[in-house]
Amino acid sequence: MQNQTSPLILTFGVADPIGAVGVHSDIGVFAALGCQGLSVTTALLIADTARVEDQQHVEPDWVSDQARVVLEDAQVAAFKIGALDHMEHISSIAEVVSDYPDAPLILDPFGSQLPPLSEQTDPEELLTVLRQLLVPQATLLLLSQVELGRLAETWRDLANGETMGDDAQHLIDLGCEYVLVTGTPAGTSRAETGLRANTLYGDGGIIRHDRWQHLPGPFVGSGGVLSAAIAAYMARGMALPQAVDLAQQYTFGALRHARRYGMGRLVPNRFHRMAETETEKG
């Protein structure tokens, strides 16, 4: 019998029957990168690779209790928080992770795969609560340029002329250490039209700007793979900029080797490196 030697990561997210998004996807990424995943389920999805038909939220007390029981038993090396569309979940999770300020926290809260918000949920209020309670605790906030704009609407008028960098700096000023804006155009030249860029901001400006070949897809769960990979590399002790670099390389490979499970979108292959190794041996 051996004690656990792989880093433990606790992820908060939905349970997806396909495993394309949420905690099942995260656990696969963690395993592929030498970590052990622990999970807290925030909602149950009815979904396939083409669409999400419905979801059932877990009671906020259950979300908190799942995490507390695990954390009283095991020491985690990092947290990942996935898609959030329930205000009480945000407050419950924020309270839990506030007790572990030394563990890296990767925040990837936007879920394009989730159903529309209920009529009782105010989108701006949801984003405001997210910005106030979780963003200040995050080591890294990961979001697209469109999602950054939506979040920025909670503190400014979009006609003010602020840039993407200004908005990222505002979030960093709140306490978030880094902001990674994904999927932006790489440039305007003909040579750059087939590329996409990810830009990492730290206090004071751009830390790195990486361009990648745009793969056509369509994919489901690509952003979640990236954030889970960053969490895994950080749990293994890497600095955030290096973790982002390696996670981007891993994610590109997962998309390049994506699989079609059914009639919908392609699912990233989290174990593509294992397949590549087997091919080389063959």
UniProtKB/TrEMBL annotation:
Keywords: Kinase, Transferase. GO terms for molecular function: hydroxymethylpyrimidine kinase activity; phosphomethylpyrimidine kinase activity. It is an enzyme of class 2 (transferase). Its EC number is 2.7.1.49. Residues 16-265 form the Pyridoxamine kinase/Phosphomethylpyrimidine kinase domain. Gene3D superfamilies: 3.40.1190.20. The keyword NADP does not apply. The keyword Kinase applies. Transmembrane segments: none annotated. Pathway: Cofactor biosynthesis; thiamine diphosphate biosynthesis. One of its GO terms (cellular component) is cytosol. One of its GO terms (biological process) is thiamine biosynthetic process. It comes from the Bacteria. This is hydroxymethylpyrimidine kinase. It comes from Pseudoduganella dura.
